[in-house]
Amino acid sequence: VDRVGSGDAFCAGLIHGLRNFPSDPQKAVELAAGLGTLKHTVRGDASQFSAAELLGFIRRPDARIRR
């Protein structure tokens, strides 16, 4: 829907992941990619997803990018 802010969302997800899961850098990257992806689904430059929504999204097996 809107790409504006998706880079900021990616960075926010990475920071959140590194702070909350310091021993699991893979999870931090997954959170970053997940939040950047979710941001594409809403209009405007700010994501409005909670940490619980983000974790639920990345845990879904069908949340993979298909090419």
Quick rundown:
By secondary structure, the protein is mainly alpha-helical.
Q: State the order of secondary-structure elements, H for helix, E for strand.
A: HHH
Low-confidence stretches: none
Based on Cα principal axes, name the global outline: globular
Find the structural class using helix and strand composition. mainly alpha
Our count of helices gives 3
User: Approximately how much beta-strand content do the residues carry?
Assistant: under 5%
How would you describe this structure to a colleague?
With 67 residues, the protein is mainly α. 58% of the residues lie in helices and 0% in strands. It has helices at residues 6-20, 25-39, 51-59. Helix 1 (6-20) packs antiparallel against helix 2 and helix 2 packs across helix 3.
Features:
single chain, 67 residues, mainly alpha, 58% helix, globular
Write the layout of secondary structure elements.
Layout: H1 6-20, H2 25-39, H3 51-59
Helix pairs in contact: 1-2, 2-3
